[in-house]
Structures are given as C-alpha cells and as structure tokens.
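Progress report, Aim 2. The chain analyzed during this reporting quarter is listed below.
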Amino acid sequence: MTVELAAGLAAYLSEAWGRAVVVGELSTATAGARRQNVLFEATADGETRRLVATIVPPGETILNEIDAEAAVRSVAEQGGVVVPHVHLCRTDGELVGGPFMVSDFVAGETVPRRVLRLVAEQGIGDVVADQLGESLGRLHAIEPAEVSVPLRELDADDPTGAALRVLTEALDQLPQRRPALELGLRWLQRHLPPPPDRVSIVHTDVRNGNVIVGPDGLRAVLDWEGALARGDPMQDVAWPALRMWRFREDHLEIGGFAGRAPYVAGYERAGGRFDEERFRWWKVEGTLRWAVGLASQTAAYLEGRVPSIVMAASGRRVPELEWDLLMLVRPR
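Predicted structure tokens for the chain:
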C-alpha cells in the first residue's frame, strides 16, 4: 500500500475528527470484487482504531453514490440493523483514488465456505439465521417516507411488475433462446402478485457472502450499494434463500447454514410480515435474474465487448440455475 494513500486517509480523517490522525498498517481486504477495501489503523490522541476504507475506483459502475450508501447504512444502524459504523464519507476522494467511506473494522468471516465451516464448528446455524431474519425485519420496519437518503428507485407502486419488465427486456436481448428461462418468465407472469401492502427500504443483496459472522453469530450486514429507497420487503427475504448461496449445503435453505423456520421467526419477531406466496415469487425471480445476468456476461465476452475470463466463465453456471428454476416452478 502506498504512502500517498496513508497520507490521504490521514488528511481526510484529521479534517473530519478535528484532530491530528496518523494512519498506518495498511493492507487490502480479500472481500470486495469491484471496489477496493483497505484495512488500516488510525491513531489520534493516543487512541488507535482499526478501520476500513471502501474506495470506488474511477469508471466503476455504481448503483448508489457512495454518500447514499453510507447514509442508508447509518439509517439501518439507527434502526437496529448490525452494520459497521460509518465514520466518514467523501465523494471527492482525490487523495485516495476515488469516492470513499471509512467504517469500523468488524472481525469475522465473510467468505461463504469459511462462514459455513465456522457455523458448523460452533453449532450456531439457527442463531445466525434468526439474527439475519431479525436484521431484515428491523430494516423493513423503518418507514421509508421518514428517510431522506437519495437512494435509487425502480417502481415503488409496483415492484413485482417492474422486476418482471426488466427481466423480460433482458431475456429478449440474449443472443440465443433458452427455453428453461422462458418457462420461468412465463411462470412469473402467470403468478404475478399485486403490489405489496407496504413498501420498505430494500437492501437487495443480503446473503451468505455479504455478511460477517463470528463465533457468537451475525456481526454485520455488508454491501449496501444496491439498496432501494422503496420496494417489496419479500425481495430481501427471499434472496438469501436461493440455492446458489448455499454452497453445496442444499438441504439448508437459508445460506447453507439453517432451515427457514428460525429465519422467519427472527424476521417476524422484529416486526416483519412473512408472505409465503410473495416469498416464492421472489425466489423464482431472483434465480431467473441471476441466470439471465450470467448469460448476459458470457454474451458480452463472446461478442468481444468485455474481454474478461471471469465474464466468460459466468456461462458455466447458467445450466445449474436453469435446473434450480425448473425445480422452483414445477407443480407442487
């Protein structure tokens, strides 16, 4: 890590905290595929804190601006959701290489297989599922109208209809027909639920891989860059239940570490209202959306638009997701 980066972080923190800050012990975190996460120590007035700087590289595609992401994380924290506390956010981060935020370092596992190993060793699968459900319940209990965070929106009046329209367009743009995906789309059309009774802030990507887990259970929910200002709460509740987040522990619906019962119990205890039919609809939608996304990435590689082996390799997962989709929509 460069001396310039340390100096830049020290300058921004000194300005924010109103006292001289010395930054050292920089290292890069393994988490974060598109953004740079830098671990470091900040010392001021003899007190040292372990922090993380999340930096958005120039030209990186973003869903929410970094200041909106930091703000919604703070709103969630105030609502009782476990998140790393944000100390600083700047959209003009020239001294560190791009817009960034600084938050507390939270110890624990984030890599899914390590999470599953830790959960199995400690016997805390149901505990983590309960805590995850509770965090989502607390998030969805926050009244969106009372939050002034400039988050992205799709169609709060009809979240399921908006999701269906986006999927239809994306599927039409694939270079070849995929009958299993088309079948999934028709199922979504036939079973389209009405708009939800109430909308909420939606994280959109809570799952095994975007959480920090320690021996005591869930310690933090990460990656708020895709949050929606208003949406269907069941979109969030269904996402961690998709098979692709179970990492071979297919018999445990929630993240590969627990069944549904403790997860729903935690969600409802925190004020959430579980709707099984909407839950199923969003599970199908999420599986189809992920399959279409991976197929689109492979198409981008084959057409020469994105010369990345990662994009090329995305295609190998599509048949697996097609199978998942068929199992989800088969007659009960």
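The chain has a mean pLDDT of 92. The longest strand covers residues 36-44. These observations will guide the mutagenesis work planned for the next reporting period.
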